[in-house]
Amino acid sequence: MEILAFGVQSDEKPLIEKAFQGLHEVRCLDVFLNRDTAPIAAGYEVISTSVNADLGSKVLQTLAAGGTQMIAQRSTGFNNIDLDVAERLALTVSRVSYYSPYSVAEFAWTLAMAVNRRVIRAASRTRDFDFRLDGLLGRDMHGRTVGVVGTGKIGEAFTRIAHGFGMKLLGWDVVENPACVELGMEYVEKERLFAEADLISLHVPLLPTTQHLINEAALKSMKDDVILVNSSRGGLIDTAALVTELRAGRFLGVGLDVYEAEAGLFFLDKSLEGVDDDTLARLVTFPNVIVTSHQAYYTEDAVGQIIDATVQNVTDYLARRTSENVLVPRS
């Protein structure tokens, strides 16, 4: 069997080919799955997609009409997939329910410290042999308060690093994590967390209940000198409201690895054509904001685990087995 993989980065391609070697042929494409590219999948029983794929109703119908029966998504998130339509079309859907939480947690801290210590500005200056310290004043994390929104595996890993810094730990989640409590975390209402934290990091999934969790009211309740980090899903933050607060001169820094309208932008080279997203264009102009292109998961360890799980998902599908990774089982 030949499997068609969409949205494969150049670093991923040899890893995917090696993982499937001896099992199945795999054809890797760098284009992302959407309405325009869906017809390419005609004749492929199994396809693999990235988190930025469009797996809405129209695309799923095109896939089913072309003979696709199984979609193996190479990510934990699946808010880009219309699962109800997939089930109606008898399309088996799987994801990767777990990979290294340290990849994302460590990157969230990378963003936090980069905006705190003005690393991008400092590095840019020294390339021009400008070694002044003006405008580079940061602050110690030790003794300050961190607010961890979502304390699952990634939130726990982030919390352990915060504990190492010697920070006061506040957490918010629907269920308390005993490991975080053991580290000294106090679980509080999100309103208190927003008001008291010096650093807020988001680690919850994007659900109808968390869409724009960080809205205008939440942003206004935060400290003027807070650091806000989002390495989870872009839709957690109302970006237009965030831009308004930044224009008012609030926040010590903001680190974003995700953006709510990133589909069609992230993972692509737009340097020559630019973007017509006015909100994103304004966001990246602020000197205290760092935007990266959804790369928090992108380590050899995490990507390797994602690919291995994807191979297993395909193997399970062919053997008519199920697992915790299956979102829509084989009919």
From TrEMBL:
Residues in domain D-isomer specific 2-hydroxyacid dehydrogenase catalytic?
8-327
What InterPro entries does the entry give?
D-isomer_2_OHA_DH_cat_dom, D-isomer_DH_CS, D-isomer_DH_CS1, D-isomer_DH_NAD-bd, D-LDH-like, NAD(P)-bd_dom_sf
This protein's record includes keyword NAD: yes
What name appears for this protein in its UniProt entry? Answer: 2-hydroxyacid dehydrogenase
- Its EC top class is oxidoreductase
Q: Which CDD domains match?
A: LDH_like_2
Under the heading Gene3D superfamilies, the entry gives: NAD(P)-binding Rossmann-like Domain
Q: Which organism is it from?
A: Streptomyces microflavus
Q: Where are the transmembrane segments?
A: none
Report the residue ranges that make up the D-isomer specific 2-hydroxyacid dehydrogenase NAD-binding domain in this protein: 110-296
Q: Does this UniProt record's set of keywords contain NAD?
A: yes
